[in-house]
Amino acid sequence: MRASDGGGRRRPVWLPWRYDRRHHLESAVLSALLHLLLLLLFASVTFGPGSGLIGEGSAGLGEASVELAEQSDRQLDARDLLKHVTIEPAAVPETQRAARPLPVLPSLGAPLASSARLRNVSARFSATGGLGQLSGEFGSVVGRLRKTGLDVALVVDATGSMQQVLQELTDRMNALTVTLKRLVPAVRVGAVAFRDRGDEEYVTRSADLSRNPAKVRDFLAGLRAAGGGDWEDGILEGLESAIGGLSWGASSKKVVILVGSSPPHDEDMPAVLGLVSNFRARGGIVSTIDITRRLHEEFHRFIYKSLHGKEPTEFPPLPEHYARVSAAFGEIARYGGGEMASGSFEAELAEQILVFTFGSRWKKELKSLGVGSQG
């Protein structure tokens, strides 16, 4: 389109939609080259080695993108997402509860025997076994025993409540046997431990009569009180093992001393009485020491001191069922021609055994030698 310039000549008019084709082609080529350079520059910066924009640790992103692209046509669930996740349990610091100390019961057996008093008896005799200050009728009795012999067997309850009693006998056995040997050098001592029939470990165990004091002591030291779940115990089996199983001397004085805290089974009582009667007829003696009162008083002392912080001044009466033990032990001693003691806390077991060996008739004479005296 052309316009007049007033002189009759026409001049070209520029319109916005009009362009030069050649000029436009040059611009397009220049623009394409510019965009190509920008794309190459962008590619070298983004994916080039060492560029730092995407580090070496990001190599997995490409793989993850491809995997997600492949899965774009299906729905992802939690199992797909958690498949590559490792879950470890949280570390919880272990807490330790402070140990709560349990109360320790003191000895529930008899108090420790006074070995000093037993040694006092021994000191009154010469090393050669002379009678020393012994005189009168008791001196004659001891002199006769030195000729005929003396055999003593302890029959001891070894059920669960008797551990402290076993320990006491172990601790004092040396002093007891030394004292016996000073009085009667040829004395032999043995022991039988009994529990109850059906015990998984044993019903009876024994150490035969021996002149070696260490033999009996070692036997007692090896015992462990256990078993005896019911009230009655195997007293019949214990006495049978002692009377029928130990090697008693033909002419010796034979003494059995039963130490326990439970009665025999009711159905065993006739057999027990018949057994000790026959033993008495053969020159034997069976004496008994019931320690239920000791156990009862010691337990009460522990409870009272725990509550009040001091020793009790008196003890409650024995429960009624303990009377069965006292009655049974009394009958056994009566049929066996011996004696029965129901010891209290103050009584001492080793001294009672020594007294029963010779008989309470000679308690005064033994006391004059130091046995039974305080100190």
Rg (CA only): 52 Å
**CATH top level assignment of the domain at 134-368:** Alpha Beta
Secondary structure tally: strands: 8
User: Which fold name is given in CATH as the topology of the domain at 134-368?
Assistant: Rossmann fold
**CATH architectural category of the domain at 134-368:** 3-Layer(aba) Sandwich
Label the overall shape. Answer: elongated
- Order of strands side by side in the largest beta sheet? 5-4-3-6-7-8
The fraction of residues in strands falls at 5-15%
Structural class: alpha/beta
Query: CATH superfamily of the domain at 134-368, called what?
Result: von Willebrand factor, type A domain
Helix content: 40-55%
Give the number of helices: 13
Main sheet attributes: strand count, strand direction, barrel closure: 6 strands, mixed
If you average the pLDDT, what whole number results? 74
**What is the H/E order?**
EEHHHHHEHEEHHEHEHHEHH
Termini gap: 152 Å
Low-confidence stretches: 1-5, 13-19, 46-76, 95-115, 118-130
